[in-house]
Amino acid sequence: MSKAIDDLKHEHEAILSALKILDTISEGIGNGSTPDKSDLSSFLGFLKEFADKCHHGKEEGMLFPALIAAGMPEKGGLIEVMLAEHALGSDYIPGNG
User: How far is CA 57 from CA 25, 49, 63, 90, in A?
Assistant: First the structure.
């Protein structure tokens, strides 16, 4: 499981890097810059395919069930919080809601 956890950690780092790019885009918009539509489309594609489907799919399909099997509560704890965060994030992606 250690390799799988390491992979998920690296995916978190990639997602955080992408969100830093979004911050930069947002700052540019705040300063009057117009972002390139193809860049935004690519960014949304990354969030939709990598973060939402691939990464969250691994967590929800493998990690969370393993944690539940190890005794972590499915309701009223961290797993429920993480699932709510996944749903909230997914709702922000156009075409997912």
Answer: 27, 10, 9, 12
- Between CA 72 and CA 39 the distance in angstroms is 40
35-87 pLDDT per residue, tens: 999 989 999 999 999 999 999 999 999 999 999 999 999 999 999 999 999 99
Q: Give, for 42, the enclosing helix (H) or strand (E).
A: helix 37-45
CA 1 to the chain's CA centroid = 21
**Judging by beta carbons within 10 Å of its beta carbon (0-12, 13-18, 19+), is residue 54 exposed, middle or buried?**
exposed
As a whole number of angstroms, the distance between CA 12 and CA 21 comes to 14
> Residue 9 pLDDT > 90, yes or no?
yes
Over residues 19-27, mean pLDDT: 93
Q: What is the 3-state composition of the chain as percent helix, strand, coil, each rounded to the nearest 5?
A: 80, 0, 20
- Are the C-beta atoms of residues 71 and 64 closer than 8 Å to each other? no
